[in-house]
Write a structure and sequence with these properties.
single chain, alpha+beta, six-stranded mixed beta sheet, globular, binds adenosine-5'-diphosphate, binds magnesium ion
Length: 410
């Protein structure tokens, strides 16, 4: 690739126009208007990876890329849904039949939501009466940017509003818990809760410092443009076929380490006592592995704390080394990176990123880099060229402007 090539970006379409087009498509598909169109964003986690299932802190922000849902209640208990991203596999399921593993496939992320909302204490006719829905997603699927949570959360705000439930922060926290249950139980995918909290509770212009010990959130302003900075997401589009099994193993590792240390979660390990904790888990048969897992969790939570402090002090330009350290920890201690992610991170740094790391579950998926605003195109071009040189699939680039959480569009 020559130096003059400019790599294209995966842009988010305008919300108003997308919502209008979906409403019109709903009318031609189902006859009659939808009750409304709602959307929820994908997210990128700035820092705090693989710690949301051990009581840790994380700092995600909502992407401008959203999943839209046009929806209209029914009264016969049926959920009928069609997605532009899953053409040819329309879903039709009776709410009474929804449960663990049912429906299989992508419909679980939709029909699982009313199922989980009822169990979370939400009430309303739409939660039992069913609905017709059309979905159009602009969050890349399976790229670690949380298209699954975007879909759940778009459905959740639609149902909450139609059920008359408040959409204040407490209401959104309860919805996030329901969406996580839908994903864990109905879709059967283990997730820790960060994705749903980010998609529902982020506000434009900032990220959230999420404390997964008690689900509290602190809004963190991210005036990157004001500081002359930008966040670039590199979706490596690399397969991550072992992600599910390995994710489960990492969870099992940290849960066992916590038991050995006599604490409910690794959040309870004081960073000042890390060496003592490492010695204790190190005495096990697989002590070397456990040592690395514990070291990642404890140091990562501490890095989130320090990142939040720097951001709070208006020193966003200084968080780069923390992002770099997070990547090295995920790569060597937690062992969830991949050659493509390492290449994206190293190339971004070589082209002027202040810091870069893999983001999301890993084993493929996306990386995030903090850069001087003027370097965005150069870094994207550099990473694209490095992938082309190695004959890897062309990555996709997204600008991570901190965007609004789930909301109604029309
Ligand atoms: P990620 O959340 O990182 O994108 P996941 O594997 O958690 O990856 O979720 C991807 C799955 O979510 C898809 O395989 C599909 O089942 C479902 N999904 C996400 N977005 C959509 C959509 N717009 N339409 C239909 N299904 C979707
Ligand atoms: Mg997901």
């Amino acid at each position: 690739m020559s130096a003059t090539t400019t790599t294209p970006f995966f842009e988010a379409p305008g919300r108003g126009a997308t919502a209008q087009a979906l409403a019109e498509l709903f009318t031609t598909t189902h006859g009659g208007q939808p009750a409304g169109v709602w959307s929820a964003p994908g997210r990128v986690n700035l820092i705090g990876e693989h710690v949301d299932y051990t009581g840790g802190l994380c700092l995600p922000l909502a992407l401008p890329h959203r999943t839209f849902v046009a929806l209209r209640p029914r009264t016969d208990g049926l959920v009928r849904v069609r997605s532009a991203q899953e053409s040819g596999s329309d879903v039709e399921v009776r709410l009474a039949d929804v449960g663990p593993g049912e429906p299989a496939g992508w419909g679980a992320y939709v029909a699982g939501v009313p199922w989980a909302m009822l169990r979370q204490g939400f009430t309303g006719e739409v939660l039992t009466g069913g609905f017709d829905a059309l979905v159009d997603g602009h969050v890349p699927l399976g790229s670690g940017l949380s298209s699954s949570a975007a879909l759940e959360c778009a459905v959740a705000v639609a149902l909450a509003e139609l059920a008359g439930a408040p959409l204040d922060d407490a209401g959104r926290a309860a919805l996030a818990a329901a969406c996580m249950a839908a994903e864990n139980v109905v879709a059967g995918a283990a997730t820790g809760g960060m994705d749903q909290a980010a998609s529902l509770r982020c506000r434009a212009g900032g990220g959230i410092l999420l404390d997964t010990r008690d689900d509290t959130v602190r809004q963190v302003a991210l005036d990157l443009a004001g500081a002359g900075l930008a966040l670039l997401v590199v979706d490596t589009r690399a397969e991550h076929s072992h992600a599910g099994g390995e994710y489960g193993k990492r969870r099992a590792d940290v849960e066992r380490a916590a038991r050995l240390l006599g604490v409910p979660t690794l959040r309870e390990v004081d960073p000042a006592q890390l060496e003592t904790a490492l010695e204790r888990v190190g005495a096990q048969e697989d002590g070397q592995v456990l040592r690395r897992r514990v070291r990642h969790a404890v140091t990562e939570i501490d890095r989130v704390r320090r990142t939040a402090e720097l951001l709070q002090d208006g020193r966003a330009g200084e968080i780069g080394p923390l992002l770099d350290a997070s990547h090295e920890s995920l790569r060597h201690d937690y062992e969830v990176s991949s050659p493509e992610l390492d290449l994206a991170v190293e190339t971004a740094r070589a082209h002027g990123a202040l810091g870069a790391r893999m983001t999301g579950g890993g084993f493929g998926g996306s990386a995030v880099a903090l850069l001087p605003a003027g370097r965005v195109q150069a870094v994207a071009d550099g990473v694209a060229a490095a992938f082309a040189d190695r004959r890897l699939r062309a990555p996709q680039f997204l600008a991570a402007l901190p965007s609004e959480g789930a909301a109604r569009d029309r």
